[in-house]
Amino acid sequence: MHLEILTPEKKIFEGDVSIATFPGADGSFQIMDNHAPLISLLKEGMVEYQDKGTRQHLQITGGVVEVLSNKVILLADGVVE
Predict the structure, then answer these.
(1) Which of 3, 20, 34, 52 sits in a 20 to 30 Å window from 65, CA-based?
(2) What is the pLDDT along the chain (81 residues), one digit of tens a residue?
(3) N-to-C CA span, the chain
């Protein structure tokens, strides 16, 4: 599936991933290939994704994620560096 991670300032990541984990407003959840359509609010927490066999992680301050047609777009309020 294709993942894009965006903040108001810049694009953080764009690429194909096999799995992604998000800090949902009601708890953490995972997205895998061919997931059903979804829109969810995100709270502050860790986003994890696996690309080319390497697990990456990113701390966000909140945001929204949309899943549609095997494309995942994360609009993060901000990223903790």
Answers:
(1) 52
(2) 999 999 999 999 999 999 999 999 999 999 999 999 999 999 999 999 998 889 999 999 999 999 999 999 999 999 997
(3) 26
Model pTM greater than 0.70? yes
- Cβ neighbour number for residue 57 with a 10 Å cutoff: 9
Look up residue 63 and give its amino acid: G
Using CA atoms, how far residue 50 sits from 1, 8, 25, 33, 64, in Å, is: 11, 23, 22, 12, 19
Q: Are strands 2-6 and 71-76 parallel, antiparallel or unpaired?
A: parallel
What is the identity of the amino acid at 80?
V
